[in-house]
Write a structure and sequence with these properties.
The protein is built from ten helices and no strands. It is mostly helical. It has one domain. Helix 6 packs parallel to helix 10 (222-246).
């Protein structure tokens, strides 16, 4: 393994560790607040799966939502900060290839996403103890999902030239797709039109597949969800690598 890749990956992980209150504790607290509010309001009124409390149903969705959002935030915020402060030039001067650059940022995003997700899950156990019938399925979707969002974060960080542009990417793309993916509900509770529309949302397949790892039931086949998520990651990774290879806004 090349030293340049290891060094860049270590730098990204260290950055997360140095501001852990912002990068780790803050999103965990946000997810717990969501859990407190929604479970308190809907616990006695909603049952999505037979025999599964709404709070237990909600936990996997919040865990995966935290994984995805923080994976995106990690790679995108790191790149835009490096571009604005001007220290990205020192990374580009190093003998590192574009695919190593991609791998280091995406892998660091996966690490942060998984750590935050684990923190949200452990904190949520105080409110409910959801079963985990297929933990490997849950882990697989968490890794693929965070890698996909980490790749999207690299694209957003390359494209954006200031924090306002990055915020618009997150507020108008990431957040709507996340909240309309079934985090707080099953799509079978929606009218037919919105059910069909939800199937065009790749975030839905990540959430639904991850939830299958807990309860062994899902709105659609986990194999189909896995195929969709893997295809989306392959497409996004290819697009990101093409941008990096061309040096778009980076001058590789």
């Amino acid at each position: 393994m090349k030293t340049s890749f290891v060094t860049l990956f270590y730098k990204e992980v260290l950055r997360v560790q140095k501001v852990a209150f912002q990068t780790l504790l803050s999103p965990i607290l946000t997810a717990v607040l969501y859990l407190l509010i929604f479970s308190h309001v809907l616990e006695q009124h909603v049952e999505v799966y037979p025999g599964v409390r709404y709070t237990a149903f909600l936990i996997p969705g919040l865990v995966m939502m935290s994984v995805l959002q923080n994976a995106f935030a990690n790679s995108s915020s790191s790149l835009i900060q490096s571009k604005i402060t001007g220290n990205l030039v020192f990374v580009l001067l190093a003998p590192i290839s574009y695919w190593e650059f991609f791998a280091a940022y995406v892998l660091a995003a996966v690490v942060r996403g998984l750590v935050v997700g684990a923190g949200v899950y452990l904190a949520a156990l105080y409110f409910a103890q959801p079963a985990m019938d297929h933990p490997l399925w849950a882990l697989l979707f968490a890794i693929l999902g965070s890698a996909l969002l980490g790749s999207m974060g690299v694209v957003a960080g390359i494209w954006a030239e200031k924090f306002d542009q990055l915020a618009s990417f997150q507020n108008f793309i990431i957040m709507p797709l996340t909240f309309l993916s079934g985090v707080f509900y099953s799509i079978h509770s929606l009218p037919a039109f919105w059910q069909d529309l939800s199937r065009f949302n790749p975030f839905f397949y990540m959430i639904d597949g991850f939830r299958y790892g807990f309860f062994g039931v899902s709105d659609i086949s986990p194999w189909f969800s896995l195929a969709v998520v893997a295809a989306c990651f392959a497409a996004m990774a290819g697009f990101t690598l093409a941008l990096l290879r061309s040096g778009y806004k980076l001058r590789f």
